[in-house]
């Protein structure tokens, strides 16, 4: 969202970035966003409450509490802000998973554009879920779920490799195990998480346009399917690369490597460590900003990395594991380096890095694509299961580890496959996709063209609002 806001600000649009009080405090604590956006005269930050207590963890495991609180608490606050705004608001770009923004916009008669921060592949699956249910390919025959897996009923077994044939464009490779984690329920009529993602995606049919952080060369077959339902789509990604490309041609003072949109304190000591390592010798390990590990999982990854004999840089957030601080010293190893948070884009672009062991979040996936880094995908929840399938099976940019238990032997073998045995194979495919990403955001590329179209679309809304 911040990357998109800066791209629009660069074009001369007046942008108000509305964030929760909690998130904005985190940004101010760990980033330079205030100084960075001060160079855009038409830009301003505003905040509203998300309705949660200050000590609420706001974690992925308590996602529904966050959505419920925002829907009930933030909805009236947003309406008041729009009504009382001194500067006329001609367009709202809303996170597409918060459909209640459409209701508020309808009340105050302001057009809405949805921005979905997941990939086109997962968006399309969410959109097609009603048809999957009608075809009786869902719900799953399960009794309960855990964060990273499922527990099957004793009397019936589910074939997790069963193909899902009712998502157009994915009939030949999308398996039950590849569906988003919200689909891992035995009763789709009562599970609130399942209903949320399905219903909110359907509500995007009501908006003025749809923005996706992807590029045509990466997801064109799926984008073609989405366009059968949505006539006005703007594919303008990868946003972080698009922003960097346009900043180079402007007079702004942003330092690409020093800037951050992180909710965690960046430890830049890892860059000095990487500077001392041979080219493409380090595998970078990070499971994102939300996922947590059990102690058993952490130790299996640690043993697998150590036994692979490869160098590794591992991000272990302060909240990744309860009691981690007492164990951090025991995890130190001569070939490895551990930090609480890393400047990921800079790390992935470093000459010493040769692979990425990732949770397959969409931002991490795109950042790896842009940097030309092959991936080992260990998805945790949400859209990550879909992304990992596309990385491994469709785009051939790495290995999908979700088919395996978290085991040190599996980790060791996959790290060696990625970094040694199949290295040339993956380097060839990742280099090709990285070049296509760069081409897309350059002058004449599809993403660059679509961003220009989006900017003109918003300006036209402004003209129409003034005419009224």
From TrEMBL:
<dbReference type="Pfam" id="PF00201">
    <property type="entry name" value="UDPGT"/>
</dbReference>
<dbReference type="InterPro" id="IPR002213">
    <property type="entry name" value="UDP_glucos_trans"/>
</dbReference>
<protein>
    <recommendedName>
        <fullName>Glycosyltransferase</fullName>
        <ecNumber>2.4.1.-</ecNumber>
    </recommendedName>
</protein>
<keyword id="KW-0808">Transferase</keyword>
<dbReference type="InterPro" id="IPR035595">
    <property type="entry name" value="UDP_glycos_trans_CS"/>
</dbReference>
<keyword id="KW-0328">Glycosyltransferase</keyword>
<comment type="similarity">
    <text>Belongs to the UDP-glycosyltransferase family.</text>
</comment>
């Amino acid at each position: 969202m911040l990357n998109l806001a800066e791209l629009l600000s660069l074009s001369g649009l007046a942008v108000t970035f509305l964030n929760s009080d909690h998130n904005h405090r985190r940004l101010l604590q760990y980033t330079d966003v205030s100084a960075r956006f001060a160079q855009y005269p038409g830009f301003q930050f505003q905040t509203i409450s998300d309705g949660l207590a200050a000590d609420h963890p706001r974690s992925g495991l308590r996602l529904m509490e966050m959505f419920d609180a925002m829907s009930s608490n933030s909805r009236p606050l947003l309406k008041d802000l729009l009504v009382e705004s001194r500067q006329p608001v001609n367009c709202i770009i809303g996170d597409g998973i918060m459909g209640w923004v459409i209701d508020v916009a309808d009340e105050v008669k302001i057009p809405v554009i949805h921005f979905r921060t997941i990939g086109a592949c997962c968006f399309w699956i969410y959109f097609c879920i009603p048809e999957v249910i009608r075809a009786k390919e869902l719900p799953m025959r399960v009794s309960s779920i855990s964060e990273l897996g499922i527990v099957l009923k004793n009397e019936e077994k589910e074939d997790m490799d069963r193909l899902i044939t009712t998502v157009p464009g994915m009939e030949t490779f999308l398996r039950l195990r590849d569906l988003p984690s919200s689909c891992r329920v035995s009763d789709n009529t009562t599970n609130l998480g399942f209903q949320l993602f399905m219903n909110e995606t359907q509500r995007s049919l009501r908006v003025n346009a749809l923005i996706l952080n992807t590029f045509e060369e990466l997801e064109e077959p799926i984008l073609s399917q989405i366009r059968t339902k949505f006539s006005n789509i703007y594919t303008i990604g990868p946003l972080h690369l698009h922003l960097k490309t346009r900043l180079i041609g402007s007079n702004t003072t942003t330092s690409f490597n020093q800037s951050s949109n992180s909710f965690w304190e960046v430890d830049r000591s890892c860059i000095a460590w990487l500077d001392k390592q041979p080219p493409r010798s380090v595998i970078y390990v990070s499971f994102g900003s939300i996922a947590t590990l059990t102690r058993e999982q952490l130790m299996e990854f640690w043993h697998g990395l150590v036994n692979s004999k490869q160098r590794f840089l591992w991000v272990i957030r302060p909240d990744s594991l309860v009691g981690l601080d007492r164990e951090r010293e025991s995890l130190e190893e001569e070939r490895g380096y551990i930090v609480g948070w890393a400047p990921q884009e800079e790390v992935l672009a470093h000459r010493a890095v040769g692979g990425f062991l990732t949770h397959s979040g969409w931002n991490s996936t795109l950042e790896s694509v842009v940097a030309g880094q092959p991936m080992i995908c260990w998805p945790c929840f949400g859209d990550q299961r879909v992304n990992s399938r596309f990385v491994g099976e469709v785009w051939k940019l790495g290995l999908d580890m979700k088919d395996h238990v978290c085991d040190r032997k599996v980790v060791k073998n996959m790290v060696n496959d990625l970094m040694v045995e199949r290295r040339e194979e993956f380097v060839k495919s990742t280099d090709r996709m990285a070049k296509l990403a760069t081409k897309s955001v350059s002058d004449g590329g599809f993403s660059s063209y679509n961003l220009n179209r989006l900017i003109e679309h918003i300006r036209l809304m402004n003209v129409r609002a003034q005419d009224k």
